[in-house]
Structure formats: structure tokens, C-alpha cells
Design goal:
The protein has 151 residues and is mainly alpha-helical. The chain is built from six helices and no strands.
Length: 151
Amino acid sequence: MPEKIQKNKNVYRLIDANANRAKEGLRVLEDIVRFIADEKKLTADFKGIRHLLTRCLAANAAIRPLSIIKQRQVRRDVGKATTVSEAKRKNVTEVFLANAQRVKESLRVLEEFFKLYDKKISVRLKAARYKMYALEKRSIEKIAQICNNNS
């Protein structure tokens, strides 16, 4: 692996941001299926992806959590402002869909950038992304049904 890529602090920032975004989104999804839908299997499945992501991040010597957290620059982040669409959610279904999309996008970014460090982890992240597609499909009908019955 080229030395420049391995030590690129901005790539570490990108990985840190996307790992955080994915794990936060997964926690929201997990809590929706756990507390609102009372779905034990879906809860375990979202938790499993979140834990898989944690293991993937810890599995590569170049990308350790401490290494990437050291590069975090919250004050200087040019994209940290909340967008108008982020500030509006009409119901639980919209919260679910927004967070599912956030997770899928973040997993894709991580998948692409881990190709620079560890192709095996990149493949695992791709599999996690496809599992997210399936979980989203399995979950959304249940979420929408619950939300429609409670309105």
C-alpha cells in the first residue's frame, strides 16, 4: 500500500465521519425496530451490522479507532451544518428512511476507502451494505403499518 495513502489524515477524517454516521444511523434504526415495532429479530440484525462495522474498523492496523479519532476536526468541518431536510421529519417512517439512507451511503463510502487499506474489509462492508438493503425492505412495511395504525 502506498505510504501517502496510509498516512493521509484527511482520509482518516473521512473514515471517522462515515463510521460515526453509519453507527449512529444504525442505532436509530435498531431503536425504532426495538422500541416502536417490538421486532426482536430485526433489532438483532441492525445491532449485528453495527457490531460488524466496529469489528471491521478494529481489524486493520492502519485504521484503528484511536488513529482516526485523533484526526477528527469538528470545529473545522466545513459540512457540519444541518440541512433543511435534516431538520424536518413528519413521522417515524421518515426518521427510519432517512437513517437507513444515511447508513447505506456511509457504508458505501467506507467500502470504497477501505479498498485503499484492506480489500477483505471492503468486501465485508459491501456485504453489510447489501444486508442493509434487505433489512430496510423487511422493516419499512412493519414501520409504516405501525405508524399508520397509531395516527
